[in-house]
Each structure stands twice: as C-alpha cells, then as structure tokens.
From TrEMBL:
GO terms for biological process: response to stress. Residues 137-160 are annotated as: Disordered. The lineage of its organism: Bacteria, Pseudomonadati, Pseudomonadota, Alphaproteobacteria, Hyphomicrobiales. It comes from the Bacteria. The keyword GTP-binding does not apply. InterPro entries: ArsR-like_HTH, HTH_MarR-typ, MarR/SlyA-like, WH-like_DNA-bd_sf, WH_DNA-bd_sf. Keywords: DNA-binding, Transcription, Transcription regulation. Residues 147-160 have a biased composition (Acidic residues). The keyword Glycosyltransferase does not apply. Residues 6-137 form the HTH marR-type domain. One of its GO terms (molecular function) is DNA-binding transcription factor activity. This is Winged helix-turn-helix transcriptional regulator.
C-alpha cells in the first residue's frame, strides 16, 4: 500500500467503518442478533409494514428481507401475517420480545458510539458529524447512492 493511500481520508473512513461494524457485531451477538437484523427491528419498531415496504426502507432486495425476517421469526422477534386487503401482502410486526430487543438496540448503538468518539470532546464530535455529512453529500452529488435523509438537510447538532 502506498503512503498516499495509507494517509487518505477514504482509507481512514474504511478502517473506522470496519472497526465500527466489528464492534457492533460483537454487541449485537450479545443480543442474539447478526449485523443487519438490528436495522429490520428498528424499522419495524414504530409500526408493522409489508415485506416490500421493509425492503424499500432498508434499501435491500426482497429476498434479503425475506431471509432476515425468516431468521427473526425463528427467534420469536417478529410475526408474519397476511394483510387485510390482500392475502398476498405479508405484514411483518414485532412481537413483544421483538419490541424489547428493539428498545435494547438504542443502548447498544449508544455504547458503540461512545467508544467511537471517546477521544473527542463535544466540539470535535460536532465538527466530525458536520464534516462527514458534508463528505457524504459530495459523494451523493457525484452519483453515489445514499439512504440517509440527513445528507440532504442540515440536522441540528448537539454537543453529545
């Protein structure tokens, strides 16, 4: 690897993202989850939705959602039922255990977030969020696909 690549911002982001994913995976494992399943649980937390809606929201293909929901169903975290108007539309909802696990995910996310930002003070945290949003917006304008509405708008930053 060249010195320029080693010192690039993109490389630093890649390394940080890999470490974040690994740490999240460890924490999720403690809840009996695999990476990706937490996104489905959090998406379903407010209200049930169809498999198609969930796939669209998570920006994945329907077979991926089907596999994820199948695993979560086996764990007793979600239920699948035919829709009211059309029996072919499958509604997915969290069970009571699924709601409990989804609520626990906030603590997991916050723990890993704190580990990630441990060496930064409040001002640096705010600056990092702002710079990352700006960089993401640049990539989005260049044609990269994004799934975060925060990229398009400015969110009020807290010093947390």
């Amino acid at each position: 690897m060249t010195k320029a690549l080693e010192k690039s911002v993109g490389r630093a982001l890649l390394v940080t993202a890999r470490l974040h994913r690994s740490r999240m995976g460890e924490k999720l494992n403690g809840l009996g989850l695999f990476p990706g399943q937490e996104q489905a649980l959090k998406a379903l937390q407010p209200a049930p939705m169809t498999m198609g809606e969930l796939a669209s929201l998570l920006r994945v293909k329907p077979p991926t959602v089907s596999k994820t929901i199948g695993r979560l169903s086996l764990q007793g975290l979600v239920t699948r039922e035919g829709g009211n108007r059309d029996g072919r539309l499958v509604q997915v909802a969290l069970t009571e255990a699924g709601q409990k696990t989804a609520a626990e995910l906030d603590a997991v996310w916050n723990d890993v977030e704190e580990e990630l930002l441990d060496k930064l003070d409040g001002k640096e945290r705010k600056q990092l969020r702002k710079l990352l949003r700006k960089a993401a917006k640049g990539l989005s304008k260049a044609g990269a696909d994004h799934d975060d509405p925060e990229i398009d708008g400015e969110e009020a930053d807290s010093d947390a």
